[in-house]
Write a structure and sequence with these properties.
- By secondary structure, the protein is mainly α.
- It has a single domain (about 65-250, about 260-450), classed as MFS general substrate transporter like domains (Growth Hormone, Chain: A, Up-down Bundle), CATH 1.20.1250.20.
- It is built from 19 helices and no strands.
- Helix 3 packs antiparallel against helix 11, helix 8 runs antiparallel to helix 9 and helix 12 (about 270-285) runs parallel beside helix 18 (about 405-420).
- The longest helix has 30 residues, at about 160-190.
- The relative contact order is 0.15.
Length: about 450
């Protein structure tokens, strides 16, 4: 819709042409705009914001109901099986370092996990476009099949390149095919309680990150690596099938989003949110990759070191739920920037200074898990908040495609710092914490562009 077309909407219609705004047909302002000042010019307000208030009426959000709630359950299951296993890569990193790939450096092994993240994030843009046109089902069927093949291939892998192809690339793609359609579908059902619904779904990844390290460690010791991966993968495959059957998107306006995704880029709020997310992502997953190795570095037993990763992910479960629920009241951006800042600060204070024993490391893991979980759960509602209903899938996917590149570099960069420090984790920790804090500052600027009032509900 051009500015000229919008100006036509701004002209006062003849009496009786449309229902009165005082009637039962009133189209309410979205929650994030209820406290914003009224625009002086409808055309100017709409063209600059990118959040088309006049077009909000085109889509009716149920904010609940059987289909919407079942979609949240299905998304929870999908993320438990896929993103939860991705969060548990530290288990594989530690196992490969001690067994199959013990002749390789930690930095080289971490490329497997970094490729997972890169393929998962980068696939978001094309997957988002397909979702906006065709919905979630076809994508999730492809993701479920891809998940099964990747798990089986990983279980039979022996050489490094085989792990890169099966676990790094193929599994990362399966996560993307199940992750993005699930969360984008939730956004088509919920408006008022969107952050809460997405937070519940993303909590599945946190719970999966708690369960998978413990289960995999016991399976590896009981039946070996190959059968351990296959048993875990079969259970995950059943979950992916259930998720595919339950996740459905709400009917949306027939007109599709912009023909060119480049039209999104001039939106300064989206660009700053994406830039801040890039810096955050550069350091965010480093503890997930290296905290098990760090635990062993401070003489924690091999058995207990895997529980540290489980505690980190357990903190993420609460972090995905509590801030997301609270953000529906005080605003997504109001929580995203502080959560990212405190996440980075916990690395620079708790990890590098105090985490010298199992107890203090567990404390850091739980706190970092909480704030990192909040960051992960709040990004999607922030994107949806500044996007039109027809652009939600594309914009979420575009954001994740942009942050795929720093996610690819974060793990290997941390591994290189570990090698350069001759086994000292200080450089790795400082790099992780400082990049997250820098990203939180850009997100704060994006929040101020949405509403310049410091305490506004945004």
């Amino acid at each position: 819709m051009s500015v000229v077309d919008i100006e036509k909407f701004s002209q006062k219609p003849p009496a009786g042409s449309f229902p009165s705004l005082d009637s039962d047909h009133e189209c309410t302002r979205p929650p994030f705009l209820q406290h914003a000042p009224q625009p002086t010019s409808p055309a100017r307000s709409i063209s600059e914001s990118g959040t088309l208030e006049l077009l909000t009426c085109e889509h009716q959000y149920s904010d609940g109901g059987f289909k919407a709630n079942l979609t949240v359950v299905g998304a929870f299951i999908a993320l438990f099986c896929t993103f939860g296993l991705l969060n548990a890569f530290g288990t594989f990193q530690a196992w490969y370092t001690a067994h199959q790939l013990q002749h390789m450096s930690p930095s080289t092994i971490s490329w497997i996990g970094s490729l997972q993240l890169w393929v998962f994030f980068f696939s978001g843009w094309p997957i988002g476009r397909v979702f906006d046109s065709y919905g979630p089902t076809r994508l999730m069927i492809a993701g479920t099949l891809c998940y099964l093949v990747s798990i089986l291939a990983t279980s039979f892998s022996v050489l490094y390149y085989q792990y890169v192809l099966s676990q790094g690339i193929l599994f990362g793609l399966s996560v993307g095919l199940l992750f993005y359609p699930s969360l984008a579908s939730i956004s088509t059902h919920f408006l008022k309680y969107r952050a809460t619904a997405i937070g519940i779904a993303i909590a599945g990844s946190g719970l999966g990150g708690v369960v998978h390290p413990i289960v995999l460690q016991h399976l590896f010791e009981a039946v070996g690596f190959g059968w351990g991966v296959r048993i875990s993968g079969l259970a995950g495959f059943v979950g992916c099938v259930a998720a595919t059957l339950t996740v459905k998107s709400a009917p949306s306006p027939t007109q599709r989003g912009p023909s060119s995704d480049l039209k999104i880029l001039p939106d300064a709020r989206f660009s700053l949110l994406a830039g801040g997310s890039c810096l955050v992502t550069l350091g965010l997953f480093i503890p997930f990759f290296y905290i098990v190795d760090y635990a062993r570095h401070i003489s924690v037993s091999e058995h207990m070191s895997f529980y540290v990763l489980a505690v980190l992910n357990a903190g993420g479960v609460l972090g995905r739920l509590a801030p997301a629920t609270l953000s529906d009241t005080i605003g997504c951006f109001n929580l995203l920037a502080p959560s990212a800042f405190l996440c980075g600060l916990s690395c620079l204070i708790l990890w590098i200074v105090t985490a010298k024993s199992l107890a203090t490391l567990m404390l850091f893991a739980s706190i970092y898990g909480f704030f990192s979980g909040a960051v992960i759960s709040l990004v999607n509602p922030c994107v949806a908040q500044i996007s039109h209903i027809r652009q939600i899938g594309t914009r979420i996917g575009m954001l994740y495609s942009v942050i795929s590149f720093p996610s690819l570099l974060g793990g290997p960069a941390a591994g290189a710092l570990l090698t350069r420090g001759h086994g000292s984790f200080d450089g790795l920790i400082i790099f992780s914490g400082s990049t997250i804090i820098a990203g939180s500052l850009l997100i704060l600027v994006a929040k101020l562009l949405v509403d310049s009032r410091v305490f506004a509900r945004v």
